[in-house]
Design goal:
mainly alpha, 2 domains
Length: 90
């Protein structure tokens, strides 16, 4: 198979997955912390957390930025390690 049709099919698949997650699964997007908090309060309404965060970002946008930055740094580290070992074998 030629390279261009393969790239096109991959991009089409990615767009299809994105459409599926946004249209078919039209559920409110909530973080794991919020869902865990809801589950805990259903089990025990009098539950008190053991500790509170040291620092909370001033807005949701900054929180998303920090999360994205953390994901990008992790991807860079994984990519570097994979590239290092692939080059070492060659």
């Amino acid at each position: 198979m030629r390279l261009m049709p393969m790239i096109f099919l991959c991009l089409l698949g990615i767009v299809g997955i994105l459409l599926f997650t946004t249209v078919v699964m039209a559920e409110e997007w909530a973080g794991a912390d919020e869902k865990a908090e809801e589950a805990i309060t259903k089990i025990d309404p009098n539950y008190e957390p053991w500790f509170s965060p040291i620092w909370e970002p001033p807005s949701g946008e900054i929180e998303s930025l920090l999360f994205s930055l953390q994901a990008a740094i992790g991807a860079l580290i994984i990519g570097y390690v994979l590239g290092y070992y692939k080059a070492k074998r060659s």
